[in-house]
Design brief:
By secondary structure, this protein is an alpha/beta fold. The protein has a seven-stranded mixed beta sheet with strand order 5-4-3-6-7-14-13, with helices on both faces. Strands 1, 2, 10, 11 and 12 form a five-stranded antiparallel beta sheet that branches. Helix 6 crosses helix 7. The chain is globular, with a radius of gyration of 17 Å.
């Protein structure tokens, strides 16, 4: 992996912002991801993210923290003990430069410490990449929860992106086992990352996975673009 995502946010942090990230998926054309958006403050965050940050409590693990905007708010504004983890060494460097006291390069699947809140935002529910991997993924997350702990995560139901037939069915290409399974590609400054798997999961499917591994799941809120925030406990 070239870690173009990490390089882009490090460039922004170091005052070398000249262009944005470009992304595309197996079902959508190239789109622009503005780097300033990754450095947004609380007031600039979508309502679902704001709600998740208000619900966070106790010892928090921010999984896939990116530039660290969520962890920074919880640490500085809410006074919580937050650990930010990401697979990108450059993203973690940015988190440290921004003042996050506990930030490290780590895969959540290699984590064993326990927390009161696991935070998986910006479609964090889908970071396992494939639907068949979700039960094992959430079963592991369950082992990281203190008694009374919670997982706060979001995703979107992307069925709206497919053509609907008169009978109500959808024309979904047989790319994977589930219509929310995509290949995601990142491009930055003329370089292209190797495509990786990403998953958008509808709430009912997430709820079924949660129940299968012994977690309760509640729909906290729904956004305006088929997105939602869920709490697993």
């Amino acid at each position: 992996m070239k870690d173009l995502f990490g390089q882009a946010i490090l460039d922004y942090q170091q005052g070398q912002y000249t262009e944005d990230l470009k992304t595309e998926t197996s079902i959508s054309e190239e789109d622009v991801l503005p780097l300033p958006y990754l450095f947004r403050d609380y007031a600039q965050m979508p309502p679902l993210e704001q709600q998740a940050l208000q619900m966070a409590c106790g010892r928090v693990l921010d999984v896939g923290c990116g530039a660290g905007s969520h962890a920074l708010y919880l640490q500085n504004e809410r006074g919580l003990e937050v650990t930010a983890i990401d697979l990108s060494a450059k993203a973690i460097e940015v988190c440290q430069l921004r003042g996050i006291r506990s930030a490290r390069v780590q895969n959540v699947l290699d984590t064993s410490e326990k927390y009161d809140t696991l935070l998986l935002l910006m479609n964090g529910a889908g970071m396992c990449g494939r639907l068949k991997k979700m039960p094992a993924f959430f079963a592991h997350l369950k082992t990281l929860l203190n008694e009374g702990g919670q997982i706060l995560t979001d995703s979107s139901d992307i069925i709206y992106m497919f053509d609907q037939n008169p009978d109500g069915s959808y024309d979904v290409p047989l790319y994977g086992d589930y219509y929310g399974e995509l290949e995601y590609t990142v491009k930055y400054k003329g370089k292209r990352e190797k495509p990786f798997n990403w998953l958008y999961v509808d709430y009912n499917t997430l709820q079924n996975v949660a129940h299968a591994v012994g977690l309760q799941c509640e729909l906290v809120a729904q956004g305006e673009h088929y997105d939602y925030l869920a709490r697993l406990f």
